[in-house]
Structure formats: C-alpha cells, structure tokens
Amino acid sequence: MEFLQFSNFIELAWWAFLLSLTTNLLVIRLSHRYSLFIDSHTEAKPQRFHELPTPRAGGIGIVTGLIFLIFNPLGWNLVISVVLAFLSGIFEDFHKTLSPKTRLLLQLTAAFSAILLTDAVVTYIGLGIELPYYIALPFSAFAIVGVMNAVNIIDGFNGLAGGVVLLILLSFGITAYSVGEVEVLQLNTLIIASLMGFLVLNFPKGLIFLGDGGAYLLGFLIALSGIFLASNYESVSPWYILCTLIYPVWEVIFSIIRKNREGKSPMEPDAYHLHMLINRHITRNNPLTALFIVSMCAPFTLLPILYHNNSWANLTTALLFIALYTLLYRKLIAMERGSSNPNLEIE
User: How far is CA 310 from CA 200, 306, 327, in A?
Assistant: First the structure.
C-alpha cells in the first residue's frame, strides 16, 4: 500500500475531522429518536453530573474518523487493535454490560496485538534500569490497559477527558516532530482531528458524551503513542511519557490507595475523584471544571517537551504534580467535611 507524506496528511486530517463531526451529529440525532446510547440523568450514579438525557457514544465518530489510519504505516498495523480497544467499551455504551474479565481480555488482546505488530516494547525505563523482554512485554501491555482505564475514570465533565487527551497528543506530536518520527506525528495529527470532531459537540454544551468506547479508545492510542516513542528513540525518556500522562495515571493510583484505606473496592464508583470535588467546591460549573483541570495539567504536560530526554527532570516534574494534586485534594476534602459531611473519612 502507498502511504501519504505529511503534507498530504494535513488534508486527510481535515477529512477525518469532518467525518468524525458528521458521524457524531448523526449519532446524536438517531440516539434521541430511537433511545440509543442514552445516558439518563435520572439514573442514580455518583459520577453523573448532567441534567438532560444525553447519548454517550462520541467514540463512534472518533473511531470512524480514524478509518484514515490505513494511509499511515503505523496506523495500518493498528487497525485491528483499535477496533478491539473500542469494542471493549462500546458494549457498555449500548447498556449491554460486559463482565470485567471479558472487558479486560479485550483490552489485553488489543494491547498485546498492537505491541507485537509495531514492536513497541519499553525495555529501558530510564535511570539506568533495563527490563528483560519477557518482563517488558507484559509491562508494556498492562501499562496500555492502565491508561485506557485511567482516561475512562477522568471522563466526568464536558471536555475534561477530551481536553486532557488533546494536551497529551500535542505533547507527543511535537516531540515526535523534534526527533523526526513522522509516523507518530501523522498518527497523532489524525487522532487530534478525529477528537476535535467530538469535542466541538461535547464542549461546552455536552450534546454528546465520550462514552466508555471513546474513553478506552483514546487511552489506548495515547498510551501506544508514548510507548512507541520511548521504545524507538533513546532521546525520549520513558519518564517523559509518564510525566505527560501523569494526571490520568495518578488519578487511578491515588483512587486505589484512597479506596483501599476506606475498605472499598477499587472498582466501586464514588463521588470523591478530584474533578468531582473541584466541581462541588471551586467551579460549580460543568465546562468550567474541565477548563480548570486542563489548565492545571497544561504545564506538566507541555513543558516536559523541552526536556523529553531528561529522566530526572521529568521525574521531578511528575512529583511536583503529585504534590500539587495531593495538597489540592486535601484542601477540597476539608471543605467537603465542613460543608456537607463532617464524618467523611478520606485522606
């Protein structure tokens, strides 16, 4: 197959945007007419903050725009994996719940197939640490699955997950350009275009939500982009990849620690994620919550581009974000105790 040069890829990205946008407009119309993918505001779920029934199938438009992956050599190898990653969530959006084991199996299959087809395995993780291949392979796969679920967790307000992913894609795209990695640059350009076809409908009005299918798909793509850069270029530190992904990754880790201390299952949803507390006690507005968090994340996502080859600098930046996150969380929990539930026990 003949692949396109980057100059032609810009035009292709424009078509990807239009296809994603048109598809999502169609999804919105059909969803309301036939009650498909509708996320009802009347269902009692702690992570729900919208007031109108809204289709949660924005991933359909995104994955449709990604059909142009076939014109990129890296993307061509990812077609099957992309479909599997998307399928791991779209069934949930159809209100046909997959068992956690089946969902995990689909996600691992997507991750392993992508890694093996692109040879994107992180064996050197920086700071002088080298992993043997038999450890690096599952490590890379589980890292991808972890990021897939992390993006799904932060998908709580209009433009939040999409905005954070957009920052990450910009960071990886600029770094790909700086090291001469055209395939990842093309791939990220195409993903950004397809994502924008969703974001213009999701932010600020929330006409359509990302849904599990879209969240898992975007998490899969950003994780794989980062792993591909780190595994193929010695000048790209794996710690730069972690630093760029630090918000969704730390949200998952922090939530697991927090729920474990409370004696809860990590899989049990609650209303005490950072973005939920920010909405209740700072912004009190759905789209403003996304703007607040995206603005908070921007320096930690974009500045590391300048030192993407420096593991210690990126580790320090990631630790600074963790410190900021923890201090803000403790402040918000103190406000939560004082305003609504004095007996709340969350640290």
Answer: 35, 9, 26
